[in-house]
Hints:
The chain is α+β, with helices and mostly antiparallel strands. It folds into two domains: 11-223, no CATH class; 226-322, no CATH class. The protein has twelve helices and ten strands. It has helices at residues 11-27, 46-49, 55-63, 67-72, 102-112, 205-223, 226-229, 236-245, 250-258, 268-273, 279-291, 298-322, and strands at residues 31-33, 40-44, 76-81, 87-93, 119-126, 132-146, 149-160, 168-176, 183-185, 192-193. The strands form two sheets. Strands 1, 5, 6, 7, 8, 9 and 10 form a seven-stranded mixed β-sheet that branches. It is elongated.
Amino acid sequence: MSLQELPNLHPRYNEMIDEEINRLSLNHPIEIKGLDKVPYIAQGRVLFDFENTPVLPVLAETYGITADDLYQAKGKFNVAIDPSGNAIGLRVVSDKYKVIQHKEALYKLLTRVPDSFELSTIDITTDSTGGKCFFILTSGKRIEIKQNDEIVYQILCENSADASKRFSITGGAFRFACSNGLVIPDERIHQVNTGKKLHRNSLDLDYQVHAFMGNLADSIQAMNLWKDYTRVKVDSETLDGIFTKLNEGERSREALMHTKLRGEHTTVQELLNSQTLTVWEVYNSYTQKITDEENMYHGVKAEKTLKVGRLLDNLVKLEVANA
């Protein structure tokens, strides 16, 4: 049976996923940390499927659930089986709950990550029960936009089998916070994400990964222009034209001009006065303003960020072509 034909709750599925992940990491120079701690998630009716395993005592002790309670339960029970074979009871779930194996999510990401991402390392963290798992996929490519302003691409994936977390993938540019390699989300930069998806039968993992990677590839292409953002100076006439095309009113213009830029310790107005304003700082002021809008729906924020990005991309491309 092939990997595609096996149900993801079959024990052999987990073994085949391991083999595929190892094959992919060998074919490409990828360092994976924490894979040996990731459990296999089993699901079944506790009284019948786990009767002679350590699961029943753990379940009774942890949740105070008796055998009679389990017999009456309409759902099933999720169990984490670690690489050593130890079984840890996680949660009684609805019969509509869909298990996404932690390694299954990682494998799908690995097979779809675009070449432009230049994947270098994968860090995996699993909680003490094995019910929750968090992946960080990091690019080996660092981009220095300007001095002391360096970014790296990352993909973050969160999954659970204990109903505590919804499935989600987030990715984009992250800033280096210090010289030891620590990175933080860059609030100036729109992150690509799937949203948080419930573990229901309608959750299509292949579709979520495919859609996310397509959006990420587009974002990486746009982010590669950012170096040129710092090379294109902006004067008063150009800035006024940007504001006009984005339909900015007087109050909005004032906020964009006079709010301190995070990480810059200055304002657009001050940079304009000193004739050092570039497209990069204009972009920063917009993404910062959009991020800080508390009452704006996430989808609207994404649309506004995209609109600003497209306008500035076109401006920069035109300037570079005419240089």
